[in-house]
Amino acid sequence: MTHPAMNSSPSILANKIMMLRSSFKGSFLIVEGDTDYRFFEKFIDSTLCNVESIRGKDNVIKTTRILGKRDFKGTLAIVDADLDYLLGFTFNSANLLRTDTCDFESLMLKSPALEKLLTEKTDRTKLQKFLGTRNIREIITNSARYVGYIRYLSIKKAWFLKIQGLKFRKFISKKTLEIKIQDLVSSVISNSTNIQVSYSQICSEIQKSEKQISDPWDVCNGHDLIEILLIGYHEIFGKHIFRVKRNVHYTKLENDDLIAYLRLAYEIQYFKQTNLYNSIKTWESNSGNYRILSN
Q: What residue spans define the domains of the chain?
């Protein structure tokens, strides 16, 4: 397993993989970014599979196409599905797979890894008081789906709204984690430039999407879910608060911390329940002696 070639171009990464073939006879797995690379680290036998990472989904796809044109064998690429399933985007390569949900973060949050994370990293009394008979997964997906609706509508209708950089505290309640839809729409409009769609149009289309898209996991982005969960940690049920003791500074959990804890909590038996795992095993069966997973 080599260090991720994060800043490579697709052609450079493709050439690198082809050069490595002379010294490595196993398979190559290409993923989009460092967090996906870390996800697979504990599931891979490095003697059988070499993992390479390149920044961006498009670059992973381009690298796969280059290797395909060169008829290079033994390479599998895996990318985030994002909103591909809803938008009808398809791939024509058997060597390119997608996550079940929008991304690896949402894949993990959908699994029991979330409960393991909560058990280790929350104040249980505060969490139980907050939840009552409710489920944390339903709470965060019910809020995150509205951000997902806007992201979906922006792509489908070519609104070109800017979702990246939104301040979730402006539209997520610090007491309930419920979303304030009007504040969300206003935040998106303020965050975007050259808006070609009105506030009322966005609200109207969101209402239609609610009726058309029944499964929140089809639109819930993992980073949005993490942002909402992080507000819960900071404001409601987390152990980690700002404090100073004996000149040691303890700071609040950040996004990357939460994702790292989630990866640690995610076990192979959870992965085995996914369509992605089954697709990888099918690829292995069809590829001869090439293997991706150690289990």
A: 10-100+274-286, 107-266
